[in-house]
Amino acid sequence: MTIGYALARALTAQSGTRRFPLRIVATGERTITLKATSPTTEPGEWGLFRESGGHIRLAGEPQQERGRVTWRVAGDDELPAAGERVSWTGIVAPHPAVAGLSWMDHVFVTRAGALPAWFVDADPGEARDLWAVHVHGLGSSRAGTLRGVAAACAAGLPSIVPACRNTAEGPRVGRGRSHLGATEAEDIAQVLERATVTGRERFVLFGWSMGAQIALRLATSERWGHRIDRIVLDSPVLDWRSVLTANLRRHGLPPRAGRLAESWLQNTAKAHLVGLERPLDLDEMDWTRRAACVPQPVLIHHGIRDWSAPVASSEAFAAAAPAAQLVTSAGGHTTAWNVDPAGWARATVSFLRGC
C-alpha cells in the first residue's frame, strides 16, 4: 500500500525467528573466538544462543587481534565447534535455573488466554505484602528480565515473571500483532489481580523497553495506581514517535517518514487493515509529556548508545516526573546491565530497599 502502512506493520509485528549471523571462528580452553564487531568487542557479560540449541555465557574483557575477538566462557557451558552459527544477545541466562534462582512454573488464566510465568523465591498463591513483577519488551522474552529479577532477589523481593499475548511464549490474540503495550497492559493487570490474595499486596513493576509502556499505564490507572509502590525501567520506550524517528534514522531513512505511519496506527479503519484489534492513541502513550502524571518513585537505567529508544526521552521524563531518577551507562538498548552488572545491581537494590 504505502510506506506508512509498511512501517506500521513492521512496528507491530511479532518477533520473528531468531537469526544466527555469527560463526564461531575457533574454540580454546574455555574460550571462544568470533569476528570482531561493535557488539562483540564490548566488555561485560553477554550471551550466545546456538543455532543447534543451547546458550553460552561470556564474561570479562575480550582479547582482540586481527579482526577477531576471543572471550572467556563463564560457567561450564558446552563449547560449540568451530564453524557453528550463533546469535549475540544481552540475555545472560535463558532460564531461572541457569541464573541460580529458586523458581516455579505457573500459568495465569486470563481473558487473553494462558500466560506462562515464573515465580521466583515464592509459590503461586502465597500471600506476600510486596511483589516485583517483571515485564519484557517487544521482540524479547521473559529471559531478558532475569537480570532485573536477580536484583529484586538481592533486595528481598519475590518476583513474578509473566509472558504477554502475541509473543513467542504467550497466547495469540486476534491477528497476533503487538499493540505496543496498550492491550498487553491488560494481561499484566490480570496477573496483578491473580496475585492478589489479601487485597493488601503492593507491587514493584520492572519494565524493559516496551515494558515501560505497560508499567506506566498500570501505575497511572485508577484500579492499580495506589497499589504500585515504585517502578524500575530499562531502556524505556516512553514515546513511540521518537522511537520511530530514531529507528528510521538508524537505517538511513528520512525521519519524517515516521509521520506517515501514525495515521495507520491511530485511525480505526487503517489500524484494522494493519492487523490491530483497535487503534492506538500515540498521545496517550507519550510519557515524556505525561511524566507529571506518574507519582511513584521511578528508577530509569538507560545506555547513552541506545539508538532504538532515545536516552533524550528518559532525560525529559526524569526532569518532569515528581520522583524519577536516571542512571546512564555506556550501554545500548537494554544492555546497561551487561556493560556494568555490578553498577546496575547496586543502583537498583538501593532503590528497592527504599520500599
**If classified by CATH, what would the architecture of the largest domain be?**
3-Layer(aba) Sandwich
Fraction in helix: 25-40%
Q: What would you give as the CATH superfamily of the largest domain?
A: Alpha/Beta hydrolase fold, catalytic domain
Whole-number total of structural domains: 2
For this entry, what is the oligomeric state of its chains?
single chain
Largest sheet: 8 strands, mixed
Span between N and C termini?
51 Å
Task: Tell me what you see in this structure.
With 355 residues, the chain is α/β, with parallel strands linked by helices. The chain folds into two domains: 10-89, Beta Barrel (Thrombin, subunit H); 103-239 and 285-352, Rossmann fold. 26% of the residues lie in helices and 26% in strands. It contains ten helices and 15 strands. It has helices at 3-11, 146-154, 184-195, 211-219, 240-250, 257-266, 268-274, 311-320, 336-339, 341-352, and strands at 22-23, 26-27, 31-35, 44-50, 55-65, 68-74, 85-89, 103-110, 113-120, 130-135, 159-162, 202-208, 228-234, 298-303, 324-329. The strands form two sheets. Strands 8-9-11-10-12-13-14-15 form an eight-stranded mixed β-sheet, sandwiched between helices. Strand 12, helix 4 (211-219) and strand 13 (228-234) form a beta-alpha-beta unit. Helix 1 (3-11) crosses helix 6, helix 2 (146-154) crosses helix 10 (341-352) and helix 3 crosses helix 4 (211-219). The radius of gyration is 20 Å and the shape is globular. The model has no long low-confidence stretch (mean pLDDT 95).
